[in-house]
Amino acid sequence: MKKEVILAISIGFALGLIITFGIWTANQSLKNLPQPSPKASVSPSPTPSNEVTNNQLTISTPDDEALVSTDTITLSGTATPKATLLIISENGEQTATADTTGNFSLDVDLITGFNTITVYSYSAYGQEASKSLTITYSTAKI
């Protein structure tokens, strides 16, 4: 029993010395780093750009909460010109690209019942915009 206690104390003492030496070495290395001068830390101010950086997204058809009797709808609207569009629906995902004027149009398949369609628009400048709409597809006669 006495041997185990002495062995544990010896190992703990050795590990403590190793950790202490590592901390001391790290502190010595950090003291030797060159300090930046206050004038060197001035960052350049951004230059204004004439480019459009605000990502716009509008869905013109179909209307939100529309009730349709066909299993495919045409989703159309406007976004930032040349924006990449990601359309997520109950039937999967689609990608599209807005034309040079920002218009887009594509067909989306629906499932019976409620369909949540989310459109994400990503501009060339890294901006994101999104819109969601709910479309109900039913063949029931009203």
From TrEMBL:
UniProt cross-references to InterPro entries, sorted A to Z: Ig-like_fold, Ig_E-set
One Pfam entry name: Glucodextran_B
Region described as Disordered: 34-61
Transmembrane regions: 6-26
Record's protein name: Polymorphic outer membrane protein
Organism encoding this protein: Candidatus Amesbacteria bacterium GW2011_GWA1_47_20
Record keywords: Membrane, Transmembrane, Transmembrane helix
Keyword Flavoprotein on entry: no
